[in-house]
Design goal:
Bound molecules: flavin-adenine dinucleotide
Oligomer: single chain
Distance between the termini: 9 Å
Helix content: 10-25%
Number of strands: 15
Order of helices and strands: EHEHEEEEHEHEHEEEEEEEH
Length: 317
């Protein structure tokens, strides 16, 4: 291990592995690292481990071996498995800076150093960047229907998007008694089959294809949205707009230090290696991610196994 650079005086231990983020990928990585006898530390910015699972109140039916009634229940199972092996997550440790070359991570002004880093910071709802869009209930990102469906009973809401989240939101809001407009810029929906069937069976959703959101209007409350469809621009009188436009990666920490795709997702190769020798990435932050907990868990396990192999061989970057 190279001596610690002048900028990072005060870093004491050099660990085997620093894991950034404690969603399914980070939790799985920490569990595997303990099982393999690595000295690993998990830094999580949030108050609880679980990542996006914490905002998924619906069942997770597609995580083999881990049947869970809800996302938070699956998060608990993953955290309990880590704890069983004696592992823990440092929550409330938002990572502010990463020096990939030096292997130094800064969180809360404290520096940590490791031979290898695993980026497992996941993703967040993508914004469209239209006027009036903000990170507030009723004018921004989903999911919301499970938690706030009642608030919009007998009111009109606009859902924007064509994937799983958009269709699920549209159906749930309709079932909660809202008048739903579902606008999607494409010709058809890419959501999974059960969500498409649920939408087809739901007569209270007004589906508008080839239709784009241009602006959200009204202050302080949303009053209408400006859209453009096949027949040109039009206004929809709605009390809320929920944008379900996919995900943006939480990869700013390594921007400019590692190869990313055009949207900023981190490019990974064999065994989740990135273009920087010391850095691995797993889960939703990776380019080509399938956005599944099972994939995040598998990628994390693969990356950690590879780290262990390299440490064993003395193949430090
Ligand atoms: C509504 C919804 C429904 C879903 N349904 C399913 C489903 O049915 N089946 C399925 O398999 N998947 C589902 N998913 C997707 C699944 O939750 C994700 O694929 C999975 O959580 C990705 O795991 P991850 O560990 O890569 O990232 P995340 O879960 O995004 O976790 C990343 C973690 O990193 C932390 N972090 C970020 N930046 C920092 C920083 N700077 N410092 C410290 N910590 C940081 C975050 O706080 C977070 O805890 C769903 C997601 C949503 C939102």
């Amino acid at each position: 291990v190279r001596p610690i650079g002048r900028r990072f005086r005060g870093v004491s231990d050099v660990r085997d592995l620093l894991i950034l983020g404690a969603g399914p990928a980070g939790l799985a990585a920490a569990t595997v690292a303990r099982a393999l006898g690595l000295d690993a530390l998990v830094l999580e910015g949030g108050a609880r481990p679980g990542g996006q699972l914490l905002v998924t109140p619906t069942p997770i039916p597609d995580c083999p071996g881990l049947p869970a009634s809800t996302g938070p229940a699956l998060a608990e199972q993953l955290a309990a498995h880590l704890a069983q092996g004696g592992g823990a997550v440092r929550t409330g440790h938002h990572v502010e800076r990463v020096d990939v070359r030096e292997g130094v991570v800064t969180a809360g002004g404290e520096h940590h150093r490791a031979r290898f880093l695993l980026l497992a910071t996941g993703a967040r709802p993508r914004r469209l960047g239209v006027p009036g869009e903000r990170a507030e209930l009723g004018r921004g990102p989903s999911p919301a229907a499970r938690r706030y469906g009642d608030r919009y009973r007998d009111r009109a809401v606009l859902i924007v998007g064509g994937g799983d989240v958009a269709l699920e939101e549209a159906v749930l809001f309709a079932r909660a008694g809202a008048r739903v407009i579902l606008a999607h810029r494409g010709d058809g929906f890419r959501a999974r089959r059960d969500f498409r069937s649920a939408l087809e069976a739901e007569p209270r959703v007004d589906v508008r294809l080839r239709t784009k959101l241009c602006a959200i209007e009204g202050e302080p409350e949303v009053t209408r949205a400006l859209l453009v469809g096949p027949e040109g621009p039009f206004h929809a009188e709605v009390g809320a707009v929920f944008v379900c436009a996919g995900l943006a990666p939480n990869s700013e920490l390594v921007a400019g230090q590692v190869e990313t795709d055009a949207q900023g997702f981190v490019v990974t190769g064999v065994a989740q290696r990135t273009s920087a020798g010391r850095l691995y990435a797993a889960g939703d932050v990776c380019s080509g991610s399938t956005w599944m907990a099972a994939a995040a868990i598998g990628q994390a396990a693969t990356a950690v196994k590879e780290v262990e192999r390299r440490i064993h061989l003395g193949d430090d970057p």
